[in-house]
Backbone:
């Protein structure tokens, strides 16, 4: 090819490029800009999350420190602050579960229920949410009122968090047992036992407790 042909070809390519850019340039810039903003936002969010976790960890340490001093009010206050300021972290769920336990030990089921309800519905971690739900169901069954039993029933009707299915069945058995429905309770306990037998990760203490319940309603 001669120089003139090459120049004409280059000019045609440049013209085509200009035409393409005129048509799609703004769109391309918009996409690139959006991608850059998304990357920057993600980086900022990761930084924020790390900062949140660090601050939440400090507050959780403060909460744990209140336990040795047996200062329930400060424990509750720290748990409340974790919920309000760092609700998206696992520390908020951990703090609420600790506060609920302290409240139960202090014979204050209403306060315990408040912390358990928050964790059962808002915990960012499925395991902590499931644990709170199971403890809340147990507390409601202990209360035994029609309203409490109805609330427990609604929780148990929801799909179990993966890995917690045996505990859901066990709690349903407790729910039936509290109403003197022995046959129904036994069936739930036996179904829970079968799942626990398949899942070797369940602690022996959990299986022993379930076995006691099974024996109480007629055995295997």
Residues:
């Amino acid at each position: 090819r001669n120089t003139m042909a090459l120049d004409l070809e280059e000019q045609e390519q440049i013209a085509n490029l200009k035409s393409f850019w005129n048509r799609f340039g703004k769109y391309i810039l918009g996409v690139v800009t959006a991608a850059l903003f998304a990357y920057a936002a993600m980086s900022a969010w990761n930084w924020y999350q790390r900062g949140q976790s660090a601050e939440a960890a400090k507050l959780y340490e403060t909460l744990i420190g209140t336990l040795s001093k047996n200062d329930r009010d400060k424990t509750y206050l720290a748990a409340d602050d974790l919920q309000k300021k760092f609700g998206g972290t696992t520390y908020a769920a951990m703090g609420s579960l600790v506060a609920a336990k302290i409240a139960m030990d202090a014979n204050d089921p209403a306060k315990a229920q408040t912390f358990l309800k928050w964790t059962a519905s808002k915990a960012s971690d499925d395991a902590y949410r499931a644990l709170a739900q199971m403890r809340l169901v147990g507390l409601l069954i202990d209360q035994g009122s029609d309203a409490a039993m109805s609330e427990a029933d609604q929780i148990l009707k929801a799909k179990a968090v993966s890995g917690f299915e045996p505990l859901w069945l066990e709690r349903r058995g407790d729910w039936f047992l509290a109403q003197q429905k022995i046959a129904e309770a036994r069936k739930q306990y036996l179904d829970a036992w079968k799942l626990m037998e398949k899942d070797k990760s369940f602690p022996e203490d959990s299986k022993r407790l379930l076995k006691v319940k099974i024996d109480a309603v007629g055995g295997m």
In short: DSSP finds nine helices and no strands in the chain. The longest helix spans residues 3-68. Residues 1-8, 40-45 have pLDDT under 50 and may be disordered. The radius of gyration is 29 Å.
